[in-house]
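call fold(seq) -> tokens
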Amino acid sequence: MNLLEALESKAMLLPGKYREMPVEELEERISAIKKKLGRKLFIPGHHYQKNEVIQFADATGDSLKLAQLAAENREAEHIVFCGVHFMAETADILTDENQKVYLPDMRAGCSMADMADIQQTERCWELLQREFGDTIMPLTYVNSTAAIKAFVGANGGATVTSSNAEKLVRWAFTKKDRLLFLPDQHLGRNTAFNIGISLDEMAVYNPVTNMLEFDGPLDKVKVILWKGHCSVHENFTVENVSEVRSKYPGMKIIVHPECRHEVVELSDEAGSTNYIIEAIKAASPGSGWAVGTEMNLVNRLISQHPDKHIISLNSHMCPCLTMNRIDIQHLAWCLDSIMDGHDRNIISVDGQTAQNARLALERMLGQT
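ret:
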């Protein structure tokens, strides 16, 4: 790290005074700034955020829904995205030039999104074009960087969410014989399996070795899965399912499709974050649920539904570490910086990248 990088890094560090402030003072500061800025400020909060942050959110939801709400909120000059880096990028891609998108803590990344960078993706694409020719449609989960979304958009593909992945995979197969699914292999595998593609028709691309992991003849491959995963959802295991079945007979198990294929197959239900929330909301009082998703959300579901027995599928699960970087201290600092006129922690996607990424997003929205 050179001197300039060191100085820039230091500038991103939370000033000590915010760590020393009582929670009550931090809450008062945030509330006062929200009141003063009014509709000029919009704070989207992802479902996985801490309660100390969610209490100040103007809207809660998944990443794409929040980015779309930010884009619709034309009066908001300042969009303080309480989530992770790729989510703020998507908000910047969809909002107007006169709107600024902020991430309260620039260290709030996503390990899954970071498992696919643009250099690796271009190298992968070259390999696949040599092996399969022009027969592949690229799809990327919205949990990916702007650069990956732009790559997919420039190559005729689309983004997907966990709720519309099946529809987009079907669409991809009307255009090409094969698809490349980035960056989460588990969502790709579960989705493809659900529409009738067998596991032995799926290869895995390893970005570290730049090789396809596949035992059979390559002409049998229909789906190429990027070797990436969610560090939270991959930690739910078959053993967790067995333990719940043994300890709580009759309890339903509901998981996110970012979980491993064998876990999804053994569960009673699988679906997006919103699907999980709505399923538990609609469940009968007294029903039992073991939930395989991020712990902040599980704890929130427990507190919101005291009439139901809700537990985490993995009793040792921790909240998403990168999501948890956004806390009340960083939120207060970010809002104070806006009031002081400091352009700090702004997320800005360059024009060409944003244009191509928007293509991928628009193709998805055109199919849903």
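Residues 233-312 form a domain with the Rossmann fold fold (CATH 3.40.50.10800).
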